[in-house]
Amino acid sequence: MSGTAALIALRKRQDRWFAILGLACTLVGVVTLAVLLSGLISDGYQRLFDPAFYNSFPSRHAAKAGILSPLVGSLLLALITIVLAVPLGVAAGVYLEEYAARNWLTTIIEINIANLAGVPSIIFGLLALGLLIYGLGMPRSTLVGGIALGLLVLPIVIVTTREALRAIPQGIREAAYALGATKWQVVQHHLLPYSMGGIATGTIIAMSRALGESAPLMTIGAVTFITFLPPAPVQSNPPFVNFEWLNSEFTAMPIQMFNWISRPQAEFNSLAASAGIVLIALTLSLNAAAIVLRYRLRQRIKW
Amino acid sequence: MNFFYGTKHALKNINLSIPVNAVTALIGPSGCGKTTLLRCLNRMHDLYQGNRYEGRILLLPENLNIIGSDVDPMEMRLRVGMVFQKPNPFPKSIFDNVAFGLRLKGITSRSEIAGRVEESLKAAALWEEVKDRLKEGAYALSGGQQQRLCIARALAPEPELLLFDEPTSALDPASTSRIEDLVYQLKDRLTILIVTHNMQQAARVSDQTVFFFHGEIIEANKTSTIFEHPREELTAKYLTGQFG
Q1: pLDDT one-digit tens code per residue, A50-84
Q2: Do the Cβ atoms of A174 and B84 come within 8 Å?
Q3: Torsions phi, psi of A128, nearest 5?
Q4: A21, A271, A277, B103: least buried by Cβ within 10 Å?
Q5: Do B49 and A185 make contact, defined as CB atoms within 8 angstroms?
Q6: If 0-12 CB within 10 Å is exposed, 13-18 middle and 19+ buried, where does residue A210 land?
Q7: Which residues does chain A have within 8 Å of residue B153's beta carbon, measured at their own beta carbons?
Q8: pTM over 0.95
Q9: What is the side-by-side strand order in the sheet with B216-222?
């Protein structure tokens, strides 16, 4: 009897030890993040509450410098990224999941997409530089940056689309087919509407990834000192839309931060910290939106 | 006819006639091929790779070979309805669930759709329970109501043949008996095939019963004859619960 009791006590002790160890391991990540964030905030909080920080261009004088052009640049890049990656990624995901026959060609495509997700982001920059700028003679523009980022996040959109489709029970597909629907009708009336939440979640995550990327943009040649805004996409005279902004030179938040950090003056370093807080706030709020969306959709559709 | 899942010979030399405006029950132990046969009739097997039909299933009076390679599966599915084992309504409104098949048939008139949705829900004995909440989601219904909604959905496009694949195996006894009543009433309008594991159910609802074993038809006859005087020993053993 006492042997059993001792054994149980020993095992319970092991259990406790692991619980403590696991907690310590978990804290490493959380504490590091907290230290980083608090460092950023203490360095950069002063400028955060200054409206001039948001509507001034970068400047040689730290006190006058702001993030207007990089912020607008990042948002425009994110817009192009999404406009490119979502239709391509969703169509590819639907094709692979619903249309493609299971054969060697499909397998090769799938392996390639999985590998694409693991390709270092700078390679996408090299691709855009070699193909679009040197090959096709495009300018070092917002459009090229957006294309590079769009290709970079394309695998994320494809994979989340496929996962969202896979979550739909086969019985739903069979019910629709049994009524005489074609594949496209099943996709259009059922699969896409039911997987919209998952796809939107993937899109938001892709966007927050794109916002933080700097390597591909630097490869293409984002400019670090831009004191103008690209031409507005809407105008008051016909045809009311203007695509000149696509060809404009650009900068982005991470690029601007990099520039400020590499300067010797401490004032610029704290500017970089302020810009970092804005960037983190942007990506965190996007991720939070994704979580909320996923949660609400799970509540709405239960299979 | 014969049917293969890849190299697996799932239905062997099936030869069967199915009477019009009657209920035919397919019984037999799990994996014997009864559901496989059911899914041949609306070409569901075409959805998956590697399946192969051989032979003919003739739809009278026009002698259309349902499993012919020249016959479009889509056409068969517009003419043959199916109710599945697990209720599988679409996560849409009650109305849209029933209307989907009508829209697939190219019916665009709102009043015609509304009329036929009502008619189908009445035929599925669900109208009284849902007439005031047609816009609500189908998932708010109970399991038995969902299954009757699936029946209404299958009835709406006015199929000639209706397939039931163990329609009550996921339902409680009260819902089961409502579905059985429905099956019994519906045979005036169309021809019905029902796969069931429940022998009492086969006895209650069907006119003809077919006993399957290992992909072959062991015996097919009038339900009363099969249950009272089975010709084959195997059938008698299955019916008395000695195996399966």
Answers
A1: 888 888 888 887 778 888 888 888 998 999 999 99
A2: yes
A3: -65, -40
A4: A21
A5: no
A6: buried
A7: 175, 179
A8: no
A9: B80-83, B161-165, B191-195, B23-27, B208-213, B216-222
Residue of A nearest to B138 (CA): A301
Encoding tokens for residue A15? 């259990």
CA A162 to chain centre: 18
Q: How far apart are CA B57 and CA B76, in angstroms?
A: 12
Edge-to-edge strand order for the sheet containing B2-5? B8-11, B2-5, B51-54
Q: Classify residue A38 by burial, with Cβ atoms within 10 Å: 0-12, 13-18, 19+.
A: exposed
Give the Cβ contact number of residue A215 at 10 Å.
17
Q: What is the ipTM of this complex?
A: 0.92
CB A176 to CB B82 under 8 A?
A: no
CB contact under 8 A, A175 and B44: no
Hey, is B152 helix, strand or coil? Answer: helix
CB contact under 8 A, A182 and B74: yes
Give me chain B's average pLDDT, please: 92
For residue B184, count other CB atoms closer than 10 A to its CB. 15
What are A3's two structure tokens? Answer: 């042997």
Q: Contact B88/A172, CB-based, under 8 Å? A: yes
- pLDDT tens for A219-259 read 887 776 777 777 777 667 767 677 777 777 788 899 888 88
Smallest Cα distance from B83 to chain A, Å: 8
CB pairs under 8 A between A and B: 61
Cβ–Cβ under 8 Å, residues B26 and B167? no
Residues of chain B found within 8 Å of residue A181, distances taken between Cβ atoms: 74, 77, 100, 104
Lookup result for tokens 């939440």: A197
